Amino acid sequence: MYKKNWFKIHLILGVTAGVILLVIGLTGSILSFEKEILDVVNKKSHIVEVPKTEKLTTSQLLTKFKEKFPQSKLKGITFSKAKDSSVVINIEGEGKFARRGKNYYVNPYNAEILPSIQGHGFFKFIENIHRRLAMGKAGKQIVGASTLCLFLLMFSGVYLYWKKMKKSFFKSFTFSFDSKGRGFLASMHSSFGLWMIPMYLVVSITGLYWSYSWFNTGLYKLAGVEKPQRMKRGQNTQSTNKNQKAISYNEIENVVILFNRNVQEYEKASLKFSSKKGIYTIYYIDESSTHPRARNTITISADSGTIQSNKKFIDLPLNERLMKSIYALHTGEYFGIIGKIIMFISSLIMVLFTVTGVMMYQKRNKNSSEKIR
Question: What does residue 281 show for φ and ψ, rounded to 5 degrees?
Answer without folding.
Answer: -115, 130
